[in-house]
Amino acid sequence: MELKVWGFELPLRSAYHAHGLLWNSPQATRSEVLKYLAECGMGASVYYGGQKEFRRYFDGSELRLPDRFLLAEKALKEYHMPLFQIPYMFLGAWNWKPGRKVYFLNLQLDSEEFDRKFPAALKSIHRQLAERKMVDRSFIYLWDEMTGGHYEAMRKTTGMVRKYAPGLRILTVAAPDPEVLAHNDIICVGPLSHWWSAEAESIVRKALKEGREFWIYLNGTTFATHVEAVTPRMTPWLCHARGFSGFLQWSMDYNWAKGTFAANGRTWMLYPTKDKPVYSVRLEYFRDGIEDFNMMELMKQLPDNVRNDLEKEIRTIAPAFGPTLQDPVRLTLIRRKIGSALEKHLKSK
Q1: Which of 68, 103, 70 is nearest to 89 (CA)?
Q2: How many CA atoms lie within 13 A of 97 on its CB side?
Q3: Rounded to an integer, what is the distance from CA 192 to the centroid of its chain?
Q4: Is residue 301, in this structure, part of any structural domain at all?
Q5: Domain extent for 68
Q6: Adjacent-strand bridge partners of 216
Q7: Per the domain annotation, does 327 fall within a domain?
């Protein structure tokens, strides 16, 4: 066996903002899980639970987590996790319509209680994050599957975030129409096959220049157990080609108590044992793709002609339009070309 070590380093904090939602794995092992995922270039939910836990820690004025955000700080600063997701503040639109209650304390959006408690929670969280210098590394996953009939609610709630937690980035899962782009920082656009076109590409390129960030989620596609192993590896390549810098995995550990190893493809990236989780090989393939993405980010430092030639190579397997070419041999050859170019030009700086 021969080992080639290139003469450049990848960043400790990934430029690719992959984020997985942890629903059921216990808080006791969360630190270890976060450390492993951060080594893979991923982030994940830091704190266990949902509204039950939120009611326990939020008294209507202050959110008092038992550790006062200490684990979140450790994940960001020691483990180099890309981003921290604010816990318990999800509203959700996929099963909500005007007049119904939202997940935040099961309140009506137009109630006086919501108008009092939602800003109070935001102010409490913002103050504690600011004390730990974490605001610019944090985001709030506010709305899921936002559609036109809910835009008044989106305008109201994003406005509250801007006012009471300035600097906190807002993520919403939705198509990037003008209304969504105007009120959110990170737009998770969902499966590309639903909407990707030349017009969509133009919208994305323009919004990137305006400071917006785009993620995708592919539900069971990337991490399905029946797909080729190169599929999770290719997902960050696809994102690079289309201007996206993140990936949202809706579940890493959903329904552990009732799940089985026979039916885990879309919801289990890590597996329960008596002591600590076991991680799937799919995560390791995805980690390799994230490393590839970070190499592609370093290409911005190369001379234009070198970078353009490499981009042409990348597009042969990850085009802006059409399916990716899931050829691990071709992928390896292109990766070697990228690495060699980075070593030649960055080592001399």
Answers
A1: 103
A2: 1
A3: 16
A4: no
A5: 17-280
A6: 247
A7: no
For 226-244, the DSSP string reads TS-THHHHHHHHHHHHHT-
DSSP character at residue 348: T
Determine contact, residues 295/302, Cβ cutoff 8 Å: no
Q: Is 151 helix (H, G, I), strand (E, B) or coil?
A: helix
Residue 244 lies in a domain: yes
Tokens 């820690």: give the residue. Answer: 57
CA 293 to chain centre: 14
- CATH number (domain holding residue 42): 3.20.20
Query: How far are the Cα atoms of 163, 237, 315 from residue 291, in angstroms, in the given order?
Result: 37, 10, 18
Cα 231 to Cα 219: distance, rounded to the nearest angstrom: 13
Calpha distance 127→115 (Å, rounded): 19
Q: Which string of DSSP letters, residue by residue, matches 301-317?
A: GS-HHHHHHHHHHHHTT
Give the number of other CB atoms < 10 A from CB of residue 189.
23
- CA angle, corner 134, sides to 12 and 251, nearest 5? 70
Q: What is the C-alpha separation between 272 and 228, in angstroms, rounded?
A: 24
pLDDT tens track for 28-70: 999 999 999 999 999 999 999 999 999 999 999 999 999 999 9
* C-alpha span between 47 and 122 (Å, rounded): 17
| Domains: count for the chain | 1
> Exposed, middle or buried by CB within 10 Å (0-12, 13-18, 19+), for 248?
buried
Question: Residue type at 119?
Answer: P
Q: What is the pLDDT of residue 292?
A: 98
Angle, CA of 92, 287 and 304, to the nearest 5°: 100
What is this structure's pTM? 0.93
Strands 270-271 and 278-279 come out as antiparallel
**Residue pLDDT, tens place only, 206-221:** 999 999 999 998 877 8
Flag whether 333 is in a domain: no
pLDDT tens for each residue of 101-127: 999 999 999 999 999 999 999 999 999
